[in-house]
Amino acid sequence: MKIITHVVLTLACLFALHGASFAQTDVNATLQQAQQTGQYTFIVFYKDNSPQTQKMLQVVQQAVSSQPQQATIATSSMASAQGQAMAEKFQVSRAPMPMTVAVAPNGAVTGLFSRQIAKANIDAAIVPPVMMDCMKHLQDQKLVFVCLTKSEQAAVPAGVRTLQLDPMFKDRMALIGLNVQDTSEARLMQQLKVDADQVQGPYAALIAPPGVLVGHFSGTSTAEQIAAAIHKAGKCCDDPNCKHAGNAQASQSTSTRR
Which domains does the chain possess? Predict the structure, then answer.
């Protein structure tokens, strides 16, 4: 009798935990709170309570609980209208489920993980501040000029300042300062392909959506030279039929065939 009672109690606990794990949270409220506290939100989207879903939720819960000051978790059922709307917002409604979306405090999406996830993925999705700002601006379809410096104050190349007056670019530009001696931003430095020794005076690296490195520009670079590089990369406007976009795609295709 004691054994039967013990088994029944154990199963009851498991079912209780099982149900609690998948209680849908108010994702918008969680995101707003995370924005105020500077936390990353890991949203687990799911269609059912399959072993794959359970595994993903377990990994995310464990990873988040180990760093509560940096991260929080939210769950969203695709069976609900709220879950569908949230999935549409993050453009994952047609993605294979389960799916975890990592959202930075500033709203940038720093990671998308479908079907399975590891703690290493979660750690990688928590990016340093400057990289986070770059990702947000890129997702907002901005041309991001990362102005590099070896001090606390970043100098902006004169050509970039002049380009800000150009009607074609002025509303699409974002300027961000980065101290090349900040080791926490090493991953961004690597992606920008910048050596700290290159930075002598005003110096900027330009990245365009979705994350294309357009080039490096020093204090002697003119606005015309910078604009030409943007045109060559096919990133001068949002028009998919732009002749420069076509030229850039053809150039990339030729390079690939070689």
Answer: 23-125 (3.40.30.10), 129-257 (3.40.30)
